Amino acid sequence: MRVKMRSAVALAVLIVVVLAVCAAGASEHCKLIKEYGRGKLYDCSGMRMAVLEGNYREMGRQYGALLKDDILAFYQQMIEGFVLRSGLFSEEDLRRLVIDPAIRTQAKRQSELLRGLSEKTGLSFEKHALLNLNVQTVMYMRKLGSGNATACTSLAAWGDFTANRRTYTARNLDFPGIYREAAKKVGIVLVMKPNDGSNSVAGVCNAGMINFFDAMNDKGIYVEGNNAADSEGLVIYADRSVIFDEGTNILFDADTIEAVEGRLRTIRASYPLIFMCAGPDTACYFENGTTDVKKRVAKENGLISAANQFLEPSWHILPLKNPGAWYSEARQSRLEALAKANKGRIQEETLMKILDERLFNKDGSFGKGASVIEKDPKDDEVTVHQVVTCPAARKMWVRIPTHTGWIFFDLKKIFQK
Known about the structure:
The protein is of the alpha+beta class.
């Protein structure tokens, strides 16, 4: 009896050790640098990864404790140093336009995460709501005429186009130069593993944000968003839950592309976005306007791309020619042409090379790609970060141009309980 008990204890200890090694060694190049409760912070080759686990208030506390200094630095840089210093808004304006509508309409999980963050950073709940929606705040700035309204380019390939028929995605996040400067200092991969039965979700954001630029859940559903203001107009609704938050909520709740579609068709968007939704063996775009949502599928089975315009014919919206929508036509068509030239061979390395190709050459002439690696002195738009994924394998690669190389995140291991 005693021998059996010793064996059982030894087996239990071994299981705990194995699970701990799996979690800690989620990516071999990631070094554990800080812990708080069940939350852990890693340094992964120059980009940090925060892994949070528990209920939403607990995950918020873990987040705030692990990254307090970075969150406060991002608030100072983005809100105080950029938004308020622009002179376009007062603090009261931001409360009326961004904070109050968000708090009135956000889901409980967002409120709990933000309250947990506030308990550990010293920033008010309201300031955390504002920081989380820094992108929407910048959209207001652009609505007032302070810069280009659209950016971002993305592509998905699968079937005959890829080396193993799995889906692979590639994406440039293009935004004002301040976002790359922020990403170099406070850009993170944030992983949330809720204990309420929701999906685990991992994505790219800046410290203090609880919504994502790019994200994947543990079911292998990947979503990224491209601005679509040049198709529908720079419209922002104050009486609807913020679409950036809802994009994250969908990943917590949806196991399939069909479930994503159902949620998007149920939600009335607060702002026009184009969502790529990719699964293990296919992908599509949901052109999500504030009045309707339309699904766009591949014309050539196995390859689809987008920049910043609605292209589903049933909209009956004429696309803008270059340089309209910040060269949207050029960015999309060039990315797709590079993919077609690699038909049958596409995997992560192929897409990384494609994302090396520039939109502008050093002399200012057009290149053959879509990325803005070196900032054009005539334009504030720059590629902030790049993401490549393989949803079937739950793999994600992230690069901040001029700052990091490609960093691999094995989300399958990271999602393990």
